């Protein structure tokens, strides 16, 4: 398997694992900073265990290899996580996902400015079509507007793109260990400004599974993506969450999406499939 194909598959699978995240946050319906306190702590523990299993005694060395770039990734992860959860709380899932959809554009600009990467025409077209698909989804729900929530979402999109660009700048280094201090910083800020949320035992179990199992696995895979594909393409694949989020809500909460939401989701899904297949064919071995 070619490195680019590996990057596409790992990132896509990571996004699939991440996709119930917004659903869980809506289901918990708790104050954002108090959720972040435990979400960050569980994420750090889960990712630490996962990376310890992967690297064994070599984990400290893997963490040291991240260097100052890893510190930047950690800070970007911390900021984007806080921004995402705050935006979900203030602006709703629809507005948040719409604004997060500009992350590939920001990643493309950062990669062009700092890494000298050119943006393929097919990727630019895919971004524009996907943003149109997200627009269809959001226009249908028409959530209440929140300036503060929109600002948090834009900050999350910018920092998410920054994380991918930093990881892309050191393709030979796995930046996943850098997410552990980032998650611990999220937890520290959450405990300082939030505390412990009042949740039922079932909700605690859901939070533990999402933050302690699914999030570490998802972000480890997504963080590996920029080693083999551009940060722009990683951000583009993350738009799958915009499609899958409403489907999770439909299945588990019984909120059936309208035909317009389904149309927007189908547009994004088909575009990403075509874009991925074109990229896959471009690197397929000859003969």
TrEMBL record:
Top-rank taxon: Bacteria
Domain EamA: 7-138, 149-273
Signal peptide: none
One Pfam family matching this protein: EamA
Keyword terms of this UniProt record: Membrane, Transmembrane, Transmembrane helix
Residue intervals passing through the bilayer: 36-57, 69-91, 97-115, 120-139, 151-167, 179-198, 204-222, 234-253, 259-280
Record's protein name: DMT family transporter
Species: Pseudomonas benzenivorans
